[in-house]
Amino acid sequence: MVRAPCCEKMGLKKGPWTSEEDQILINYIQQYGHGNWRALPKQAGLLRCGKSCRLRWINYLRPDIKRGNFSREEEDTIINLHEMLGNRWSAIAAKLPGRTDNEIKNVWHTHLKKRLKHHEEATGPAAATKRRSKYYDQVAKSQANSDSLEHIPVSPQEYSSDMSSTVTIGDDNNDNDTCPKAESPGNFPEVDEDFWSEVLSTESSGGVVSDFSAVGGDPHELQVPFSPLMAMEPVNGYGSNMHDSMDFWFNVFTRAGEIPELPDF
DNA sequence: AATTGCTACAACCGCTGTGTT
DNA sequence: TAACACAGCGGTTGTAGCAAT
């Protein structure tokens, strides 16, 4: 079996879609659905590759697409989700009904990155880290208080609107500084290479790390409840992408019963 | 009015994950 | 189990439109 090229270069159109093409695609999908994108253009009579049709439908023609500018609330949500999820645009889009990953990615690169940069210039370079730590601090507090997610800030406004009151690294006078260790690499517990390689190999082989004593330590020593994102960072040194590791680490730690699941935004 | 530079966004490209044979 | 097809994802590019000069 020989794999066919993704796109037949010969005779297939590229570039901006015309309104006629849009209409053909809409009519076809409304009538037959889009079971097989690869076969769709031929059946619909379009000189496009399936990939192009899929992108056009998902990013532009789908009836549930929300057009127009992003609201301030949506922008805040993107910023905060981006802090937690990184460049996982589809995951972010899943939390914003009617918005596509492509659209969110564009908005991020054209507006929000700048907005965030200006904001951090005004509030200090560690603002994002503080906000992130504050979020996880509240997760930890909530778990300690009630074992529920009831008090976790689930809207961006709840945990970003009062950034001015967030903690400062090394500010011993700040009573709110409940999570200094998560912010200060110097206080982050030492974890030897064996731990991370063992965790990685255990999970990649399909296993679940539930006995941390077997791989080098007690999860409490890692302060996992306070800072799962910090805990991910050492993995970078082993060639993994930090953001792609997000699900991996949450799986590891939540299944180990150490932190609650992230709230559903 | 013409030119240049910038911004926003649609679309493409290459890669990865998953299901199927 | 390997090879493949396909869908989906994220990075990048191309270009239209606008503002500044």
UniProtKB/TrEMBL annotation:
Taken from the UniProt entry, a GO cellular component term is:
nucleus
**Species annotation:** Carpinus fangiana
PANTHER family to which the protein is assigned, alphabetical: MYB FAMILY TRANSCRIPTION FACTOR, MYB-RELATED PROTEIN MYB4
- The domain of life for this entry's organism is Eukaryota
Feature: compositional bias, Polar residues: 157-168
Myb-like domain location: 9-61, 62-112
Q: Which SMART domains match?
A: SANT
Q: Name one GO molecular function term.
A: DNA binding
Localization per Swiss-Prot or TrEMBL: Nucleus
Any idea which UniProt keywords this protein has?
DNA-binding, Nucleus, Repeat, Transcription, Transcription regulation
Domain annotation HTH myb-type: ranges: 9-61, 62-116
Return the annotated region ranges for Disordered: 116-191
Q: Does the keyword Repeat apply?
A: yes
Q: What is this protein called?
A: Uncharacterized protein
Principal localization? nucleus
